[in-house]
Amino acid sequence: MSEVSTDTPMIRVSAVDKYFGSLHVLKDINLDIPRGQVVVVLGPSGSGKSTLCRVINRLETIDSGAISVDGVPLPEEGRALAELRADVGMVFQQFNLFAHKSIIDNVTLGPIKVRKLGKDEAREEGMRLLRRVGIADQAEKYPAQLSGGQQQRAAIARALAMRPKVMLFDEPTSALDPEMVNEVLEVMAGLAEEGMTMLVVSHEMGFARRAAHRVLFMADGEVVEDAAPDTFFDSPESERAKDFLGKILTH
Amino acid sequence: MQVLIDNYHLYLRGLGTTLRICLYAGLLTLVVGTFIAGCRVAPLTPLRAFGTAWVTVFRNCPLAVVLFFMAFGIPALGVNASYFVFGTIGLALYTSAFVCEAIRSGINAVSPGQAEAARSVGLGFGQTLRLVILPQAVRSIIPPLGSVMIAMIKNSAIAGAFGIGGDLYAVGIRQSSAQGEAIIPVLVGVALGYLIITIPAGLLLSYVERKVAIAR
């Protein structure tokens, strides 16, 4: 798929390095994600793909380089950073729904406290999003009462309630039972179709082929391949990608 | 035991004073302790350093030294108030270090993913703490906080010994040394007075503990 990339990219990562102690987890990463592009990042465990996802809203700090979202450089701590995070939706592997709040309260907390929406308006919008992800009937329950797939869909609704410019997904289906993976991927594919800019760390190849415009393959902190999904899956160039695909395809 | 019956009104008044000290000091120490705990988990290094210094000072100085400073040091600096005020504040500041650590241990018991999710929807540090972390931390804060509060109630006797006057401890001292009453019955009376406060306080805490355990 071709992209119009004349305007500022939604996400720009330039020359980013990141260490965990002596471990070099991101090595000189350069990446532009144009508005509306869906990028799937895959790679072996420890390749730095989750860290790449987490540095974009500064859940992890970087040691050098620069990151900007919609043309704005990532601020340091403080109000400006909170404002930027409000525009960047994040979905976690472990859902991280607020355990002490009902599903609808999870979804409306940000809009009420950060966007200063009225309670009724936030609730209406929240219910619309819960209907969209198919769990409106669970609105009054607590996270622990829901299945993993339902929790993850609630987490997506919570992120969407902030009307984000970008959505980051950090292995959104890796903690799910197999029969719940599809319900989450379908919601994500729907978002992709609507033109949401997305960075998705995931090994779901069906999703990558169907919904992604671009696949990044990472290994040892570097982006080894950057290609269209079909090109990558059908004819990977590097040995490491071939080896990786061989391992996940044989089952 | 006649001394207890004859002087029951003195004991009651002493109980009232001790209760007042504990109530004011308790409220103050909860506010200060929570604030210091917030400092200790803040993203800003100077705040964290301040919190750590606070806890180090007040947790490691004997209460008697803190109270001594409040009784003689602060007035020497030209600040004047009754010793009831100074004693209560001293007791609250000393206890706040322990309150802070009880709260901080509760905060650390909440999964880090909760704070990450809160920050990701754009909540600031204070909002994250107040709306997401503390409500979930309460369950694990209550038991250690209860011990801290009961210790504070008993420590109020030391503030009494510094001359707040009229509290349970002072009543006991006056009767045994100034009025020459037999020490054992007098102290039994004083002990009963403290038990009247601490045992219901303990029961209240286990009630709250059960309450917050279910609410989830």
Automatic annotation (TrEMBL), chain A:
- A Pfam family it matches: ABC_tran
Catalyses: a polar amino acid(out) + ATP + H2O = a polar amino acid(in) + ADP + phosphate + H(+)
**UniProt GO MF annotations:** ATP binding; ATP hydrolysis activity; ATPase-coupled polar amino acid-transporter activity
Listed GO CC annotations: plasma membrane
InterPro entries, A to Z: AAA+_ATPase, ABC_ATPase_HisP-typ, ABC_transporter-like_ATP-bd, ABC_transporter-like_CS, MetN_ABC_transporter-like, P-loop_NTPase
Q: Where in the cell is it found?
A: Cell membrane
Q: Does the keyword Hydrolase apply?
A: no
Q: How does it sit in the membrane?
A: Peripheral membrane protein
Q: Sorted alphabetically, which Gene3D superfamilies does this protein's record hold?
A: P-loop containing nucleotide triphosphate hydrolases
User: Entry's PROSITE patterns?
Assistant: ABC_TRANSPORTER_1, ABC_TRANSPORTER_2
Q: Which CDD domains match?
A: ABC_HisP_GlnQ (cd03262)
Q: Where is the ABC transporter domain?
A: 11-245
Q: What's this protein's family per the entry?
A: Belongs to the ABC transporter superfamily.
Q: What's the name of the protein?
A: ABC-type polar-amino-acid transporter
From TrEMBL, chain B:
**Which InterPro entries does the entry mention?**
AA_ABC_transptr_permease_3TM (IPR010065), ArtM/GltK/GlnP/TcyL/YhdX-like (IPR043429), MetI-like (IPR000515), MetI-like_sf (IPR035906)
The UniProt transmembrane annotation reads 21-43, 63-86, 148-170, 182-208
What is the protein named? Glutamate transport system permease protein
Q: Where in the cell is it found?
A: Cell membrane
User: What is the organism of origin for this protein?
Assistant: Actinopolyspora xinjiangensis
What Pfam families does the annotation carry?
BPD_transp_1
* Recorded topology in the membrane: Multi-pass membrane protein
Q: Which Gene3D superfamilies did the record assign?
A: MetI-like
Question: Which keywords accompany this UniProt record?
Answer: Amino-acid transport, Cell membrane, Membrane, Transmembrane, Transmembrane helix, Transport
Provide a GO CC annotation, any one: ATP-binding cassette (ABC) transporter complex
Q: Which GO terms describe its biological process?
A: amino acid transport
Q: Which SUPFAM superfamilies match?
A: MetI-like
Alphabetized GO MF terms: transmembrane transporter activity
Every ABC transmembrane type-1 domain range: 15-205
What is the similarity comment for this entry?
Belongs to the binding-protein-dependent transport system permease family. HisMQ subfamily.
Which PANTHER family does the record cross-reference, listed alphabetically? Answer: AMINO-ACID ABC TRANSPORTER PERMEASE PROTEIN YHDX-RELATED (PTHR30614:SF37), MEMBRANE COMPONENT OF AMINO ACID ABC TRANSPORTER (PTHR30614)
